[in-house]
Amino acid sequence: MSDLDQLTQSLARNLKRWRGERGFTLDALAARAGVSRGMIIQIEQARTNPSVGTTVKLADALGISITTLLDYEQGSHVRLVPESQAVRMWSTESGSSTTLLVGTEARGPIELWSWRLMPGDSSTSDPHPEGTVELIHVTAGVLTLEVDGEAHSVPAGTSATFEAHHPHAYRNEGSDPAEFTMAVSIPPVR
Hints:
27% of the residues lie in helices and 33% in strands. It has 190 residues and is α+β, with helices and mostly antiparallel strands. The strands form two sheets. It has a six-stranded antiparallel beta sheet, with no helix packed on it. Strands 4-9-6-7 form a four-stranded antiparallel beta sheet, with no helix packed on it. A hairpin with a 2-residue loop joins strand 6 and strand 7. The chain starts with a helix and ends in a 5-residue tail after the last strand.
């Protein structure tokens, strides 16, 4: 990948990230920056290399430096959470449990969970706020995922994602323990 391609990709990723972090719609950012909505879409899809002037307008409208908007050298911050600090949130006498592994508040809360459901056990969840998404990866057994009244069989090695603003439940209807990892992305409060 050339330096220009890398810069284009970085600008696309960073513009989308900072627009989301600020809670700006495409139209809101366009109005604040004096840049067309179509141009912002093209930049976020890495289909164009905007002028320096356009890039400066976008950075100013987002309240960040042009360096921050263009930065692709900066490494990500790492937070390690040892197993001993993971939080057991739910368990049953038969051995089912959920453990909150890690979470973050950046651009809206993101949580990573480790689940173990023993045969016959289940856990139901009320709908989460609109825009909440869950991602699941089953590592052992078969999970029955019910979303808005519809059951889905998710065997080991399979991943699933769904909009979690619908009622949902996790069940183990099999004879072996079901184990899975789940990430929950919750939209920021506006």
